[in-house]
Structures are given as structure tokens and as C-alpha cells.
């Protein structure tokens, strides 16, 4: 039996300047086929090989890299040709298939460099999000071409990627392009003539800039000046470079007078913003979206500018007994027809990550509300329960979510059997054909027709549109009677219907959980519940009862948003995947001739979050201004010491 060879222990290091002892290998370049066995043999013999025409990737022994204080993007641990190459290469690297992600692609320099950057940035090579791992386990990647397998493990390099003015996708498999700069223009005297003078002065300063370092210094100076302005009153410019920032300043200057006259926010397509009457913290509401918003690629790239935050969050989950972020974000399950339970867990998980991030950035809302299952997310994320993470596996295993209100819909069968007359009972002996549809009509226009369709229900009233649920044939017949077309929902659930009402006590029992001993009701935002406002102390029974009332009854989300506005909410920030509630809230405001600012936080690798933060800044919402500081200048690379002499 052939002995398994020892791990290669070769380091792949990104370099800016060629060390004197490095040997340039220009033929190992780009998308050309590379003789990896020969390169590995040379590196094992002690050579430092600078790969590619510019020699930006250094292949050398890991020990030599450590002695030269070079931090590898990745370690090349296994390389095998022939039959059963994947298992043999993993055996050489002292790893198993259970630990590894396996990709089939050409073993070119470009491909290996891209995946080395993925390992360095902890970017998952498939879904593009944070690469979650169990405690004390390194990330392992197998690249396979034909009968050759190459094994990479994570190195010690950790890229520092700012949110503003950087290519947050550089070198990673989820490249999201360069994110714009955010340049605040402090407004200590926020009248129109003063604003115009400050804009002109800012344009002049931008025009005098000759380098990226000077632009970064201008932005840092502006942020430092803003920290001294009461309420952080400012106008916000966003642009990829100085030319775009100048153009944005010019575009906004034409609209400021009209903005004052209309008392209306001024925004540009690029994200620049000005508010003549900033709303501030007192009008900020967080909205937790419902089930069905989570997707396979959600949060992709967001970990790049917030790498330390994601690592710390995963460590906290490890301490709570979870394998990692994948436990609450469910990326594998979301890749193909996830169940209601998987969607529910992943949706709450996304809300948890985004809320914790906003909290880290110093954002404190005055109000909080949820759309449907978003009420459970609100309770879990805001720390009302002692152990919210227990919900993860309990939700996945509960028949309430897997069989009663979804899946085989046993609750619907029981309810219809109970309601049906004897001659109708035979109609539901087979499968339940349930459907959820969205119709662009207000619920009040649909309600008079429901008596003709006893198994079609209004599940959610959301201003100018309505979610219908129930028997597929009756729902479609109702839509036809209304003279409308409906949009099918991929998510099938009996929540918010009489079917769920019959499960009210079971739902209440599921969500009646011990409250957190650290919960400080005075520190919480004002919680707005949809169907049952808890009276008195916010205890376990009150929380469970409020959530059960929401899930088991028809939801009037339009009324909930209107109630929030009457109590002072003006800016609604969606804390979850996608932009489900953002669009709904804007439509509800338009239908009522009321301006409601609804802002998503997830998408485009951080760009959506950046635009939302910029608009919040323009409205005087308190936050850590350091998030807008661009990257510090990169020091000139020094040649590595000659460790061979």
C-alpha cells in the first residue's frame, strides 16, 4: 500500500513589490495552463516563485513565509494527479471531504488567485457570503481539473476593506465593484445661502485635489468637522471619485431651494441626499420583514467591509452552542426550494445579523415593528427572550411549521373537514391544493366577494395590494371575478387565515418562552404589535400572545404602518434580506398621499446599506461616523529579508 505523502506546506502570498530573492515566472500567467507539479517541486526546494507577468503572487515554503513575516492568502497543502485525486489530495493535506468545499474549474493562475483571496476574506466560493465554519476548524478548498486536484487551506492574511471608496469585491469570488465615497458637507448654519456657499467651497476643494490620498484627507477632515456640529447636520455627497462628487454637488445645488419650499428630502440616483427638516433619531423605526425574503445569496459581500464583526458574531454563536452563522442563515437549504421552516429561520437570521451590525454602528431606533413572522424576529433580535437561538432547531423540527400551516397542510384539512358538509367531505380526501396570491387591490375591495368563495381568505392587507390564501381553484376564481391578475407566491402557508386561527393556542405555546433576565424595557424601542398590544409588563405570556395573535389572524400591515406614523415614525429601515417591506411601505404611503421613507439594508455587497446610512446621516440620525472614513494610504511595500543567506 502506497504511503500518503506529507502536506506540501507551501504559502501563496500577495505582494506589492518583488523581494530580491524571488524568481519571476512570467509564463505562469492569467488563464494559461500551469505546470503546478513543477512549480511545487521548485518551491519545495526553497525557491521563491513570483507568478505571473507582474509577479503579484508569491509561491514559497510556508516556513520561509513565516520567517519573512509574510501573511499567506492561502496554503497549498495537497496536489495529486490520477485516479481518486480528490480523496488522495485531501489525505495528503490531512483533511477530509466533510471539511472541504470542492470546485471543478481550470487550475489557472487566475482561478487559484481568486480562490486564495476567497479563503483570505472568508468568502464562500459558492454563495458569496461569509464562509461559516464550526469552532476551531479551518476553511479548506479543493480545486479540480480533470484528474488533478489541488488543496488550499486558509492562511493568516486578513484584508482590511473599508465600506467607502474601495473595491470591496477585489480578488474575491463575489466581486461587487467599487463602493462610492461618502463626503458629508457640515451645515452649522442650515439656511439656503449658507448651504450654497458651502457647496461651492466643497466643489472648489474637490477641484484642487490631485491624488487619491488628498481626496481621502478631504473626506476625513469633513467627517472630523461634522463630529463638532450639533445633531450632525449635513448634506451628503456620494460618488466614485472627485469628478462624480463635484457633479453630485452641482446636481444637488439646483434642487436645494425647491427642497426648502416643498419641505421634502432631496436625493440623487447616486445616493447623495439633503433634508431641509431632518427627522433625527426620534422618527426612526426598524421593520423586520416576514418569511419568504431570505435567498441563497443574501448578505453576499457584506462581510468584506465588516470582517471582524462577522468573525465576532460567529464566535458568539459558537458560545451559544451553534455550529456557526450557517446555522441561522441556512445558505445550503436556501439554494433549492426551502421549506417554510428553513425560510423562517434564515429570515430571522438575516434580521439578527443586520440588526447587530446597525447596533455596532451606533444606530438606535425609536420604534420597532414586524411584518408577519417579522414579529418573532423582532422579539428574538431585540433580546426579549432568554435563549432566542433555541428557536433555530425547534422551528426546523416543529410540525407546526413543517406540516400544519405548510407542507402537507394538515391544519387546512382538519379545518375544511370540520366546516364542510357531508357531501363536500369527499372533495378533500386527496392532496390539499393551497395557493398564496398577491393582488393589486385593497382588501376592502375584495372583502364583499369572499362569501362566494368560502375557502379563499384575505391573509394580509398591505395598503393598495392584498395577499390571498386558500384553495387554489377558489383563489383563482376570486381573482378572475375581480377582473385582476395575480402574482403567485412561491411560499405556501396558511398563516393569517382561519386555518391558523384554529392553531392559536399551539402558536402561543411555541412562542411563550422565558424572557431575558437582562431585558431593560426602558432601553427598548417602542414595540408596535399588529394584532394584540401587550398590556402591562412585557412578560413571556404577553409576548407569546402577541405573536400568536399576529400569526393566526388576518394581518393589516397598512394599518400597522399608519399607526406607527401617527406615533411619530417617519423613516422605516428594513432589517432583513431583500426589500419586501420597503416597497410595501412606500406604496402604503403613496396610497395615503403621505411621504414615508422606507430604506432597505441588504443587497449589492454593502452598497444598499451604504446608501441607507448616507440618507440616515442626512436626516440627522446618530451613528458612528467612522464608518464613512475611506481606506488609509497603503504604505510602500518593503522587500522581504533574504532568509536563505
Describe the structure.
By secondary structure, the chain is α/β, with parallel strands linked by helices. Helix content is 36%, strand content 17%. The chain is built from 24 helices and 24 strands. The strands form 6 sheets. Strands 2-3-4-1-5-8-7-6 form an 8-stranded mixed beta sheet. A 5-stranded parallel beta sheet has the order 21-16-15-23-24, sandwiched between helices. It has a 5-stranded mixed beta sheet with strand order 20-17-19-18-22. Helix 5 (192-207) runs antiparallel to helix 7 and helix 12 (340-360) packs across helix 13 (374-381).
Offer a few descriptive terms:
disordered C terminus, alpha/beta
Layout of helices and strands:
Elements (H helix, E strand, L loop, with lengths): L9 E5 L7 E4 L10 H9 L3 E4 L5 E5 H6 L6 E8 L3 H8 L7 E5 L4 H13 L18 E6 L2 E7 L11 E2 L10 E2 L1 E6 L5 H16 L4 H15 L7 E6 L2 H12 L2 H7 L3 E2 L5 E2 L9 E5 L18 H13 L5 H5 L1 H4 L5 H21 L6 E4 L3 H8 L8 H8 L1 H6 L5 H10 L14 E6 L3 H4 L9 E7 L2 E7 H11 L3 E3 L9 H4 L2 H8 L14 E3 L11 H13 L2 E2 H10 L4 E4 L5 H12 L5 E3 L7 H12 L27
Parallel strand pairs: 2-3, 6-7, 15-16, 15-23, 16-21, 18-22, 23-24
Antiparallel strand pairs: 1-4, 1-5, 3-4, 5-8, 7-8, 9-10, 11-12, 13-14, 17-19, 17-20, 18-19
Helix pairs in contact: 5-7, 12-13, 12-14, 20-21
Amino acid at each position: 500500500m502506497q504511503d500518503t505523502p506529507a502536506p506540501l506546506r507551501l504559502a501563496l502570498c500577495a505582494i506589492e513589490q518583488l523581494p530580491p530573492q524571488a524568481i519571476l515566472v512570467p509564463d505562469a500567467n492569467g488563464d494559461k495552463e500551469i505546470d503546478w507539479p513543477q512549480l511545487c517541486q521548485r518551491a519545495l526546494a526553497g525557491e521563491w516563485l513570483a507568478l505571473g507577468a507582474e509577479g503579484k503572487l508569491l509561491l514559497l515554503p510556508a516556513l520561509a513565509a513565516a520567517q519573512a513575516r509574510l501573511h499567506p492568502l492561502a496554503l497549498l497543502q495537497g496536489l495529486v494527479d490520477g485516479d481518486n485525486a480528490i480523496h488522495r489530495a485531501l489525505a495528503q493535506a490531512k483533511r477530509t471531504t466533510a471539511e472541504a468545499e470542492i470546485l471543478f474549474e481550470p487550475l489557472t493562475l487566475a482561478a487559484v488567485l481568486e480562490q486564495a483571496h476567497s479563503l483570505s476574506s472568508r468568502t464562500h466560493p459558492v454563495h458569496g457570503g461569509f464562509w461559516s465554519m464550526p469552532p476551531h476548524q479551518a476553511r479548506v478548498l479543493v480545486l479540480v481539473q480533470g484528474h488533478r486536484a489541488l488543496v488550499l487551506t486558509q492562511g493568516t492574511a486578513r484584508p482590511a476593506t473599508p465600506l467607502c471608496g474601495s473595491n470591496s469585491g477585489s480578488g474575491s469570488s463575489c466581486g461587487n465593484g467599487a463602493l462610492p465615497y461618502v463626503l458629508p458637507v457640515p451645515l452649522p448654519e442650515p439656511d439656503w445661502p449658507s448651504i450654497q456657499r458651502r457647496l461651492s467651497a466643497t466643489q472648489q476643494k474637490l477641484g484642487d485635489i490631485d491624488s487619491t490620498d488628498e481626496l481621502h484627507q478631504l473626506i476625513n477632515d469633513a467627517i472630523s468637522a461634522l463630529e463638532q456640529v450639533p445633531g450632525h447636520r449635513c448634506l451628503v455627497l456620494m460618488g466614485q471619485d472627485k469628478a462624480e462628487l463635484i457633479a453630485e454637488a452641482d446636481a444637488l445645488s439646483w434642487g436645494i431651494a425647491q427642497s426648502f419650499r416643498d419641505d421634502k428630502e432631496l436625493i440623487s440616483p447616486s445616493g447623495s441626499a439633503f433634508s431641509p427638516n431632518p427627522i433625527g433619531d426620534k422618527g426612526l423605526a426598524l421593520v423586520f420583514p416576514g418569511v419568504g425574503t431570505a435567498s441563497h445569496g443574501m448578505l453576499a459581500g457584506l462581510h468584506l467591509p465588516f470582517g471582524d464583526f462577522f468573525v465576532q458574531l460567529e464566535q458568539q454563536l459558537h458560545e451559544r452552542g451553534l455550529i456557526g452563522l450557517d446555522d441561522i442563515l441556512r445558505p445550503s437549504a436556501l439554494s433549492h426550494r426551502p421549506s417554510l421552516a428553513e425560510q423562517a429561520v434564515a429570515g430571522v437570521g438575516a434580521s439578527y445579523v443586520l440588526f447587530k451590525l446597525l447596533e455596532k454602528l451606533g444606530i438606535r431606533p425609536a420604534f420597532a415593528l414586524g411584518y408577519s413572522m417579522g414579529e418573532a424576529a423582532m422579539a428574538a433580535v431585540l433580546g426579549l427572550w432568554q435563549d432566542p437561538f433555541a428557536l433555530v432547531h425547534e422551528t426546523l423540527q416543529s410540525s407546526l411549521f413543517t406540516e400544519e400551516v405548510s407542507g402537507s397542510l394538515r391544519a387546512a384539512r382538519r379545518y375544511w373537514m370540520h366546516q364542510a358538509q357531508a357531501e363536500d367531505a369527499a372533495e378533500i380526501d386527496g392532496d390539499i391544493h393551497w395557493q398564496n396570491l398577491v393582488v393589486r387591490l385593497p382588501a376592502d375591495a375584495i372583502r364583499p366577494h369572499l362569501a362566494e368563495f368560502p375557502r379563499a381568505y384575505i391573509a394580509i392587507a398591505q395598503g393598495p395590494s392584498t395577499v390571498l390564501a386558500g384553495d387554489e381553484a377558489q383563489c383563482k376564481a376570486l381573482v378572475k371575478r375581480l377582473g385582476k391578475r395575480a402574482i403567485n407566491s412561491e411560499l405556501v402557508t396558511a398563516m393569517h387565515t382561519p386555518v391558523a386561527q384554529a392553531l392559536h393556542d399551539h402558536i402561543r405555546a411555541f412562542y411563550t418562552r422565558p424572557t431575558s433576565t437582562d431585558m431593560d424595557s426602558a432601553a427598548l424601542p417602542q414595540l408596535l404589535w399588529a394584532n394584540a398590544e401587550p398590556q402591562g409588563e412585557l412578560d413571556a405570556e404577553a409576548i407569546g400572545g402577541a405573536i400568536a395573535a399576529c400569526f393566526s389572524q388576518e394581518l393589516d400591515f397598512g394599518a400597522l404602518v399608519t399607526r406607527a406614523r401617527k406615533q411619530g415614525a417617519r423613516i422605516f429601515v428594513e432589517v432583513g434580506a431583500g426589500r419586501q417591506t420597503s416597497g410595501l411601505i412606500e406604496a402604503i404611503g403613496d396610497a395615503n398621499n403621505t411621504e414615508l421613507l422606507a430604506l432597505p439594508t441588504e443587497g449589492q455587497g454593502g452598497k444598499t446599506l451604504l446608501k441607507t446610512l448616507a440618507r440616515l446621516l442626512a436626516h440627522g440620525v446618530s451613528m458612528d461616523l467612522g464608518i464613512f472614513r475611506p481606506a488609509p494610504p497603503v504604505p510602500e511595500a518593503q522587500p522581504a529579508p533574504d532568509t536563505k543567506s
